[in-house]
Design goal:
With 961 residues, the chain is α/β, with parallel strands linked by helices. It contains 29 helices and 26 strands.
């Protein structure tokens, strides 16, 4: 076997840069080897393709194969990486037999990965990493992710590609020409952005960046968490040997820290110097100022010369985004003898849309910058070779920074949109933004909203029953976790269930946190979980909720055959939660009670506000109880700590959301999250549309702001971050639009009925039809509808005459920006739409009295709820949209095979309007709602963007499209 291992290692070692004939190299790896027999050759191939994924030969071959699949800019093939064509080219070079090819692809299939989405100015190509050449910390980091965090191949390839793409956008640290770039990386809430920027830091340090500053939020809790994460996963034990935080009393997860085997400097690699620690933020260095100096080895060459750069240590600072701390750092840097003009610097701004952006409108205040923004700007001005990379999941404010201010943080050089990671649970996994709650089947637990969301209708001081249900869900989920771990420990790894937490976030008031904590403790005692009554209630919840949900969406996760099987595990779960003095921890600026997830298992209920929101990772979060109202989309998204990775317990996640919040009880948090979901999906889809569509012109970061649109009543970010420019025109081809801000006054409602009457009166009636067909899953559906054919001119008249909600659009001629853009599109652009189908779905029974349309007859009215009193949450239904997508020729997520009536209606260049008379209560006046479906066209996607200027009018698109 040792001879086999030597042969395999030698043969594969010759393939580190490119594939070579596999059987030939295994048969005779070099002149010192005898030729292997056919049987020995088969045995070696069996090792390479072993059923044991941890077999060293398989691991080595798998790593090579993945590197060939993913290789970029190589001379041995011109094929697209991570594609079937690339894998075929690899087999041709390996000279794989048909059987070998089949076996390799079965055991080690290629992964079809999309390239990272990059919007950038042209930049110098300088970064071409090669295995084993100045990649020490990056390779150790990847090894750590595989071995300690058990990342799979797809996740490793994804972070490899995205971090490389980001570093490629930075300036060359060895270049004689200084360049300072500004960039933005868009991730998802709780999606692994820290892991990504740790990878960027590793790659950048290997490439030559020698001062790395991480701006880690505004709270100590977040800064400490970030520092510890970098210490643990990037630097490793040997570089922490002088830190008393770790050495005097090693944390319980010390065995999980990265290890080098020896001090990296003694192994021939560069060292790191930490100027901050988990419990120590940066302070004025004073007598310790030498810690920031860089000593050139080659005095005749500048610091950025390779002879100096790669002999110097990397200095790492993880600091809070605070004006005072930034000011102190700037003062210290000004005292250095090191030439800052020669120093390659990387600044990572975590949660970059918070605190660091300029919230001062100079036109209104006369001031130029907010204090923290000024601190970051002044810091960057010190570094002609400084690269600024902002990270955020809510990039709206970043994209609206003034691009004409050369010193500000507008991402002028690049914007990278990270792909959604495998296994991630995001806002779209909890909500379908285009489905109304009343249209959902309450017994269909395959629907995300029915599976995960629990609506809280009681007033905040009358919700004991809801809060008790949340506590029971928390206990039940804990018991199921322990059951799974006990029965299948190899599959349910210990780190999956190390922590088990519940979040209660109902207020920003610290006094309210204390009151809530007392309530939670009282209700916990009232539940009496270990009593017969308490166990009976847990059993009822198991039968009514968790069993059904897990069977519907659990994807094979272990479930007990009966509740009795859970009982011993529930007792253990309750014991772990009650361990110590309290079942809860209050986390706010008045307490020091934030859990240290690295110190040991945390099975507690966390109660708090802002400190438990943006950027802070609540490990093991399974049940959330959330009732806090937010006024902007980005803030609301960041409150969603339940987004993230839930390995082994995705089916156990529950989110309790208030639907009658606010002073008037008119704020539905479920509806607001749906609005946010729509806004996020639309923004990311717009970027994909302009990057990935063949023939689309290149866009640069300055073209991104027009792609932001308001969905519902929430603006994307705070108004003080939105004083920039506008979009002039837009191509709506292949798009859908649903604007829901209909008026409330009787006069305006009546005016809209008249507008629709005029539209239908000018249209050709095609009669009542049963439209529908079958979906890809085989489900059949039909919808009775009145159908009309209309002209572009009539539709434009509708858009011109329709009235909107009075609180936002006071004049009859005032309308949402998106409607103005649609009118401009249909009147001035070569949109190619020749006619419109008007489809009015009819219900067997109208909600309240049907609406009478002159010349048409009665139209059934649909029940729909309003959001925050000024707009309906949604008009149509998903199946109706599937029909409209087909009729308009729009690519659908749910492609359908049409029935005869639907197929006969379809023709090229036809737009579709879905018409819905709706009301909130049976006695209300009718509101006329509609959804538009614009047929695709051949117009370029880059028409009509304008650059933002401070002097421009403020225009932000509104509505749901």
């Amino acid at each position: 076997m040792s001879d086999f291992n030597t042969r395999i290692e030698t043969a594969l070692g010759a393939m580190s840069l490119r594939p070579r004939p596999l059987r030939a190299y295994l048969e005779k790896p070099g002149p010192d080897f005898e030729s292997a027999s056919a049987s020995d050759l088969d045995r070696m191939l069996d090792l390479l393709l072993s059923t044991n994924p941890n077999e060293p030969a398989r691991v080595r071959f798998s790593n090579l194969l993945r590197s060939w699949d993913n290789a970029k800019n190589v001379d041995w093939t011109q094929t697209t990486r991570n594609s079937a064509v690339r894998r075929k080219a690899i087999h041709e070079i390996l000279k794989s037999t048909a059987e070998d090819e089949s076996r390799i692809d079965l055991v080690l299939p290629f992964y079809s990965l999309e390239e990272p989405l990059i919007v950038s100015e042209k930049h110098q190509d300088w970064y071409e990493p090669k295995a084993g050449i100045r990649d020490y910390y990056w390779s150790k980091y990847v090894q750590y992710l595989k071995e300690k965090r058990h990342w799979n191949d797809v996740s490793i390839l994804t972070i490899d590609n995205s971090t490389r793409a980001i570093v490629e956008c930075l300036g060359d640290p060895e270049s004689s020409k200084a360049y300072a770039s500004r960039g933005l990386v868009m991730g998802y809430v709780q999606s692994g952005k820290t892991a990504n920027f740790a990878g960027v830091v590793a790659r950048a340090a290997d490439a030559g960046y020698r001062l790395i500053i991480v701006l880690a939020g505004t709270w100590n809790i977040l800064r400490n968490q970030t520092q510890r994460r970098l210490d643990k996963e990037l630097l490793g034990k040997e570089l922490l040997k002088n830190d008393e935080t770790y050495i005097k009393q090693p944390p319980s997860d010390w065995d999980e820290f990265l290890e080098h085997g020896n001090d990296p400097a003694e192994l021939g690699h560069y060292a790191w110097q930490r100027l901050t620690r988990p419990d120590i933020d940066l302070k004025r260095l004073k007598q310790a100022i030498d810690n920031l100096e860089f000593e050139r080895k080659n005095k005749a060459a500048p610091l950025y010369h390779p002879s100096n750069l790669h002999t110097l240590p990397v200095k790492l600072l993880v600091i809070k985004k605070h004006a005072g701390i930034l000011s102190g750092l700037i003062k210290d840097l000004a005292l250095l003898s090191t030439s800052l003009a020669e120093l390659p610097v990387l600044v990572i701004d975590d949660e970059s849309d918070q605190a660091g952006l300029n919230t001062v409108d100079p036109r209104a205040t006369g001031k130029k910058r907010a204090p923290t923004n000024e601190g970051i700007v002044e810091l960057l001005k010190l570094f002609p070779r400084g690269q600024y990379v902002g990270y955020t999941a809510t990039p709206y404010a970043n994209a609206l920074v003034d691009p004409d201010d050369p010193e500000d943080l507008y991402p002028k050089d690049f914007i990278v949109s990270l792909d959604r990671p495998p296994g991630y649970m995001g806002v779209a996994d909890f909500f379908d933004p285009l489905s109304a709650y009343e249209d959902l089947d309450p017994d269909d637990y395959g629907q995300p909203e029915i599976a995960y969301i629990r609506r809280v209708e009681a007033a905040p001081d009358q919700d004991d029953e809801d809060l008790q249900k949340a506590l029971r869900s928390y206990v039940l989920a804990g018991g199921i976790k322990l059951f799974r771990r006990a029965l299948k420990p190899q599959h349910y790894k210990s780190e999956y269930f190390r922590h088990h937490t519940m979040l209660v976030h109902t207020s920003t008031s610290k006094g309210a946190h204390v009151t809530t904590a007392n309530r939670v403790e009282e209700l916990w005692l009232k539940c009496a979980f270990n009593s017969p009554k308490g166990l009976r209630e847990l059993g009822n919840l198991w039968e009514a909720d968790h069993r059904k949900v897990s069977q519907a969406i659990g994807n094979g996760e272990l479930l007990p055959a009966s509740f009795d099987e859970l009982r011993p595990h529930l007792a253990r779960a309750i014991g772990q939660i009650e361990e110590g003095n309290r079942i809860f921890r209050v986390v706010n600026s008045d307490t020091d009670d934030a859990p240290d997830f690295g110190a040991g298992p945390v099975w507690k209920i966390l109660i708090g506000g802002n400190k438990l929101s943006r950027g802070y990772t609540v490990e093991g979060l399974t049940v959330s109880y959330y009732r806090r109202v937010s006024n902007t989309a980005d803030t609301l998204m960041q409150m969603g700590r339940w987004f993230g990775f839930r390995p082994g317990y995705r089916d156990l996640v529950r989110v309790f959301l208030g639907v009658k919040e606010g002073k008037k009880g008119d704020t539905d948090l479920v509806a607001l999250f749906k609005d946010v979901c729509q806004m996020e999906e639309r923004f990311r889809e717009e970027i994909k549309r302009y990057i990935r569509v063949e023939g689309a012109a290149r866009i640069t970061p300055k073209d991104i702001p027009p792609l932001i649109a308001i969905s519902g009543s929430l603006p994307p970010t705070a108004r003080n971050k939105m004083f920039n420019a506008r979009i002039k025109n837009k191509n709506f081809g292949g798009r859908r639009s649903m604007l829901t801000m209909t008026p409330e006054t009787p006069a305006r409602r009546k005016a809209n009925i008249d507008v629709v009457t005029a539209l239908l009166g000018s249209a050709k009636a095609l009669g009542q039809m049963a439209l529908g067909g079958s979906l890809s899953d085989g489900k059949q559906f039909e919808a009775d509808a009145l159908v009309f054919r209309s002209s572009n001119e009539s539709l434009i008249q509708l858009l011109n005459s329709y009235r909107w909600v009075e609180t936002e659009y006071k004049d009859d001629s005032d309308r949402p920006a998106d409607v103005n853009l649609q009118i401009e599109f249909l009147t001035k652009q070569r949109h190619e739409i020749s006619n419109w189908l008007i489809v009015a779905p009819q219900r067997s029974k109208s909600f309240g009295k049907a609406v009478s349309i002159d010349g048409v007859g009665q139209l059934a009215v649909k029940h729909r709820g309003r959001g925050k009193s000024d707009h309906f949450q949604v008009f149509g239904e998903p199946r109706h949209r599937d029909i409209a997508d087909f009729l308009a020729g729009i690519k659908s997520k749910n492609p359908m095979t049409p029935n005869a009536a639907t197929k006969a209606l379809q023709s090229a260049h036809t737009g579709v309007l879905l018409l819905y008379p709706v009301r909130e209560n049976e006695t209300d006046l009718v509101s006329m709602g509609y959804e538009l479906f614009f047929s695709p066209n051949t117009l370029p996607y880059d028409t009509g963007f304008t650059v933002r200027r401070h002097s421009d009018e403020i225009v932000v698109e509104e509505g749901v499209s």
